[in-house]
Amino acid sequence: MRNRLIGLAVITLILTGIPAIADAQKNEVKDNACVDCHTITGATKGIINDWSMSKHAANNVTCDKCHSAEAGDKDSFVHNGFLITRTVSPRDCSKCHPDQVKQFNASKHSLGWTKMEATSRYKAIPEELRASMCEGCHNIGKVYADGSAGKCDSCHTRHLFNAEEARQPEACATCHMGLDHDQIEYYRTSKHGVITGLDRNTTRAPTCVTCHADGGTHDVSQGITLGTVSQGAFISDRNSGNDYVTDQYGIVQRSITREDFNAGRASMLSICSRCHSESFARDVLEGADEIKRQSDAKVGEAIKIISDLYNDGLLDPMPENRPLNPVTGNKLTLTGHQTYSNTSGIEAEFFEMYKYALIHAWKGAYHMNPDYAHWYGWAQLNLDLDKIKAEDRRLRRLAALENAEKTGGAKATPGFEGIAAFVALIVLASLVLLRKRR
């Protein structure tokens, strides 16, 4: 019986589709033909099910309202006589949600795709692996054929598009987790997250959107100061916007003016003060500011050590003796476009220091998570710095030995002067004892 129905539906579509193909440019869908056909044929059951429970369905926002295309659209094609597109862009969404799209365009999320494509780490990954790696998260800023950027269903999962679902911390967890930005764990294991986890109906504690999407804004960058995206920001005499510059320690990050900082801090304090005293909130945020500054300084020490090794030709291997960095070529590259492949041992140690421990220290602090700020962050920063210092000494001793061997000299190896003197003393004492016995 089911096969007979499907056969009749297909025949009907073919017969009715003949004139529709001729009028495909009109793109008029009658009586929600998409849902009728997909229901009869059993195609995309999950999509139909989710849509049927959505506010879109309740408000008669049918498939054609989002998926219809105009003549000349780059990603359009004719499907059963209708001109449609598979990929619904932010420009399509803006027809009904103009304010939300405008807010999103002002956020750092909107840059996710273009920033990703420009990075060395993305370029260094085999092309076949990119979709399952970087693109899975950075497609929140995907650029479409019509030029608009964004992927609304990164947060509002299709085709239900439930706003309440997008407000939950789990909606952010797919991307904001892991070694280099474990925000979901900073939150879950903070007092804020614990309270919410114990009672999901409580209003006692904030969720991600309370602080980062206040009032329902889609500009998640609001209120963030030194803790802004990636490696953060530092206060300077100019605002670098979406560009990255080098701070006094050699870390590539954004710069913001004191005015930008004050405006962002005032915004965040107004949010925190709904539950806490302003003085308490200010103390916590200023403590996190100081953790970021001192953590950046630790990374700066490591940058100085590695840069000196590079200038002395002692990295093993030197940048010119390894595959080129996809963006910076054979230059020494620390932070920014630094890769985690085709590098030296000490640079690999540094990558973990700046990309993981540094982030945990200050982002853990801003999320009021003492364990991440200390043990995963500050403590690990110091341990990593000690390892880098030890590797620096090893490389320099090895270079001194090799140099002495080449020149045939008896130059003492740096760090071994005391040992050499002790050995010489023992040899001398042994000779004296032998003479006495004779």
Task: Write the topology of this structure.
Elements: H1 2-22, H2 33-41, H3 45-52, H4 55-58, H5 63-67, E1 76-79, E2 82-85, H6 90-93, H7 98-105, H8 112-118, H9 120-124, H10 127-130, H11 134-138, H12 163-166, H13 170-173, H14 183-188, H15 191-198, H16 208-212, E3 233-235, E4 245-246, E5 252-256, H17 258-272, H18 278-311, H19 345-366, H20 370-407, H21 417-437
Parallel strand pairs: 3-5
Antiparallel strand pairs: 1-2, 4-5
Helix pairs in contact: 18-19, 18-20, 19-20
Tell me the number of strands.
5
Tell me the number of structural domains.
4
Q: For the record, give the distance between the C-alpha atoms at the N and C termini, rounded to a whole number.
A: 116 Å
Q: Indicate the CATH topology of the largest domain.
A: Hydroxylamine Oxidoreductase, Chain A, domain 2
Shape assignment: globular
Mean pLDDT: 88
- Distinct helical segment count: 21
Q: Secondary-structure element sequence? A: HHHHHEEHHHHHHHHHHHEEEHHHHH
For the largest beta-sheet, the strand count, sense and barrel status come to: 3 strands, mixed
For the largest beta sheet, what order do the strands appear in spatially? Answer: 3-5-4
Helix share of residues?
40-55%
Kindly report the name of the CATH homologous superfamily of the largest domain. Hydroxylamine Oxidoreductase, Chain A, domain 2
Radius of gyration: 30 Å
CATH architecture of the largest domain: Up-down Bundle
Beta fraction: under 5%
Specify the CATH class of the largest domain: Mainly Alpha
Structural class by secondary-structure content: mainly alpha
Q: Would you identify the regions where 5 or more consecutive residues have pLDDT less than 50?
A: 1-27
